[in-house]
Amino acid sequence: MSAETRFSIPDLYCPFTGTCDQPQPAAEGVGRDIAALVHDLDDNPALAEMLAELRLGEFTARLSPRLTTEGNWLMQLYWAIYFTSDHWCDRRPDGTFRETAEAVDFCRRTVRVLCGEPVAADDPVPTRLAAFLRERLDEYCPGWTDSRLPHYFGRNMTARLWEIDVHRSGRTPSLAEYRRIKVVKSGPEPLFELDILAHRLCIPSWIRAHPAVETLQEIAADYIARYTDIVTVSKDLHEGTMSNIVTVIRAERGCTLQNAVDTAAEIIRADADAFVDLRARLPHLGAGCHPDLESFLDRLQEWMANCEPWARNLPRYSKHYDEAG
Fold it and tell me: Does 314 reside within a domain?
């Protein structure tokens, strides 16, 4: 590694305690079943290698260790859609780039299938997985279509078109652009909603819509997206991915890579402190103390605490981690 790209990752601040080190046999079993399902849909070796590096069961157990078996199916099917969508959108099997219109049609079609449109045998793997996720949701979470999941899922699918554009154009987005779009592409919003559904939390709609509650969710999503960017910056540098907060800060401020890493670390510290302060103010802001809201906010804190260990331990990320120096 050259001197100008050498950096070290400081201790990253998190005021919350994680619970990601407990063995989760149910999660790992579901992960194996989903890997087999993907193989049945498409025996592409590249897909199998990607899923093997992700270790879906371990991945989900680290982030969300309290899930039931059915909850694991919901979460892991979503993760499988997320990562196979990235794989599908980038290139065709022959290695050529997919046209933008083709990727747009795929994203829209996958959202429609999740929301009830019949799936076809020639649909791509992520779209067919969306049909499996819909079936599980219909069985386990009746009424889920009235939740925020369809909206969040649609936002996530279309936000990946932004990341494709950034990658193919070779441009570095502005920090303002990054802050508004990258967190949507990173996927926390659908996962938070799936977490509510999987744990059968019933938070009144007026509480979910309270500005302070929505801000807490946004802060948690920002924290997770930025924390993951810092921990995986070596992977993104290796792959030439410019939609990482560290590379965005370096380009916008003209600073060294180390200064950009340190600045990103300061930003996530501010995120965490803002979450703690705002949550403590909720009783004074008219959001009430609903028990399911408290459970949801506890879960957001758990996600924030657990997002770093999986990035350090999963082969998809950890194989580049030591390159940081």
Answer: yes
